[in-house]
From TrEMBL, chains A, B:
Bias (Low complexity): 1-13
Location of the region described as Disordered in the Swiss-Prot/TrEMBL record: 1-20
Annotated protein name in UniProt: Transcriptional regulator
Positions of the DNA-binding region: 42-61
Gene Ontology molecular function, alphabetical: DNA-binding transcription factor activity; transcription cis-regulatory region binding
PANTHER family, A to Z: HTH-TYPE TRANSCRIPTIONAL REGULATOR RUTR, TETR-FAMILY TRANSCRIPTIONAL REGULATOR
Source organism per UniProt: Saccharomonospora cyanea NA-134
Superkingdom assignment: Bacteria
Alphabetical list of SUPFAM superfamilies matching this protein: Homeodomain-like, Tetracyclin repressor-like, C-terminal domain
Keywords: DNA-binding, Transcription, Transcription regulation
The organism's taxonomic lineage, starting at the top: Bacteria, Bacillati, Actinomycetota, Actinomycetes, Pseudonocardiales
Residue intervals of the HTH tetR-type domain: 19-79
Length: 201, 201
């Protein structure tokens, strides 16, 4: 039986299972991050908010960065199911919808903003972004594998590049420009990525 | 003679010309932002660093946000010439190269990171990102207009959507994932956006 948690976070000592209260600890961690940014996040405050003893938290995560990394990668708050609609277009559109939901949702947008701001400002947290993207890409790769099997996509297409384009477009629209997201936004960006925008010769 | 500076920043009182030392003030503003983040930026520190009297700065910009907005939009540090290579592919690839240069360059990457972090964490600075993007889009629109004239692009393609995809991909790769940027990155993302990645029926 393989009971390792997904992802390997630098600095975290992880035995076979997470603590029973892991999701509560993660939720408290992300709420503190979303509420007051990286500087407001302390292990003491997480302990107070989650009702879990500080010693227990330190037993699992040596410092707040290790805890933040675990929370961002493993919290159910930031997870979504990978779509399986039967077409590449439907799956990618579903992914974009979910990303828009994460970046605009009442419970999540503040957390995502704070996480992005924390990572963007701190090279010491670069591993955290890489860890998150690697973890998500591992799940989303199935979308691309199925599309190759169905003959919709060449095996030479780099899933990471396509996801850079799609996730980046959502970020640019929602986070950077803070512009409205029209109902057809997901379909439009996916259409460009699948079909291209150039006039075909 | 139209001597208005480009862009209209909320809260800034702008007479016909900027102060003679505008670029020095902008440079000091962005260096302080890049060095210590938004919190380290004060009008007092900008005055000390640029050697321009505080009163002069306040005469032009009522507070640090107005000054930061002017610096981000108008500083020559963050400006680049819009490419005109004769093809849409060449122009878009040139834009991506310039964005990668901005986000990785020694003199600029810290400033861009700090600006992104400041904006991402502060809804009160959303206007600043919009102002920046509107200003740049006004220049970059020429790339799309020329492509439509040459018959490379349909007039129905939304330039803002294409730039969300391209600029977002650079941000995702460089800033979020902090992953290496291969030499062919610009060509590859532009290829997907122009031709699509789906197998053509």
């Amino acid at each position: 039986m393989d009971d390792k948690l997904p992802g390997t976070l630098p600095g975290s000592r992880r035995p076979g299972r997470g603590p029973r209260q892991a999701q509560e600890i993660y939720r408290a961690t992300l709420e503190l991050l979303g509420g007051g940014g990286y500087d407001a996040l302390t292990v003491e405050a997480v302990a107070a908010r989650s009702g879990v003893n500080k010693t227990t938290i330190y037993r699992w995560w040596p410092d707040k960065d290790a805890l933040l990394g675990a929370a961002i990668v493993q919290s159910s708050l930031l997870r979504f199911d990978v779509p399986d609609t039967g077409t590449l277009r439907g799956d990618l559109s579903g992914l974009v919808h979910r990303l828009v939901g994460l970046m605009t949702g009442e419970a999540t947008s503040g957390v995502v903003v704070a996480a992005l701001a924390a990572v963007a400002g701190r090279p010491s947290l670069a591993w955290l972004a890489r860890e998150f993207v690697t973890d998500r890409l591992a799940g989303e790769r199935a979308v691309f594998d199925r599309a190759v099997e169905r003959g919709e996509l060449s095996g030479s297409v780099d899933p990471a590049l396509v996801l850079d384009l799609l996730a980046g477009a959502v970020w640019s629209r929602v986070m950077l420009r803070q512009a409205p997201v029209p109902d057809d936004f997901a379909d439009e960006v996916v259409k460009v990525v699948l079909e291209g925008c150039a006039v075909r010769a």
